[in-house]
Amino acid sequence: MRKNRWLTFTLVGSLLLLSGCASTSSASSSQPWHLLPMAEPLQPTTQQEVKLARIDQLLTRSDLTEKDRAQIYYERGLVNDSLGLRNLARLDFNRSLSFNPAQPDVFNILGVYFTQSGLYDAAYEAFDSTLELDETHQFAERNRGIALYYGGRYELAERDLLKHYKDNTHDAYRALWLYLVEVEKDGDVLARERLASRYQASDKQDWGWQIARLYIRDVSESEFFENIGRTSRDNTQLAERLCEGYFYLAKRYQTMGDYRSAEALYKLAMSGNVYDFVEHRYAMLELGLIAQKMRQAPSS
Fold this sequence. Notes:
Blueprint (H helix, E strand, L loop, with lengths): L9 H7 L29 H13 L7 H17 L3 H14 L4 H13 L3 H14 L4 H13 L3 H14 L4 H15 L1 H14 L7 H7 L5 H11 L3 H21 L3 H12 L7 H19 L4
């Protein structure tokens, strides 16, 4: 899914001129996952490193207001988050709130962190805080729906994600998350019929509709990955699309009970280091849920 563009780094610019455990599932697959396309893992850019250095320099200034300092900590948190340094990012987001507690964007990303950690009640509270501060915050609406989905509260998740989808019916990722909830709530056949209908009603311009085509069996897995390799303009876009493709394909294999393939695909989704995609964020959560399920499964 597209990166969460939480907020531009306007303040900094104006002031500075600036592997997991092996599967124990009995289900297996003969799919040769090691032959699937791979991107070079994304690395920190010079721009990110320079931005961190400039932010650190800026924080030494004594003439900053509390509001300015809150914004700067938030922006440094975003950079750390984009580098996968999530503990450091969370510290910065909490520091930001200590200087200015009325920040819907900060509560939103903290809610995502709580969801990743399986702290669903804390996530709901964080997203509720975001929406209390900004009732039009669509990221929080979507993210609360995802948290409700992972928390097993499918009726409430469907409510949030259906509203989110109706706000932009051409956004494939809104339809995909709604589909995942409906699979749990109504079964795959009915959910797939609804996704197919939404695909037909869309303008089909969003690349994510290619994932929808995979789900509704309008394209094969091999065709899907060939399309990614053929249409990606550079390694960054290849890594992003593979992160998405592997994650949503893993969800399908997981639904089928093929946990071995799902585990492999979730790990592949994380392999490109696309840290600020929700698919990368939740792949680790999914791996943990599979491991928990396997531990609880009765031994044969």
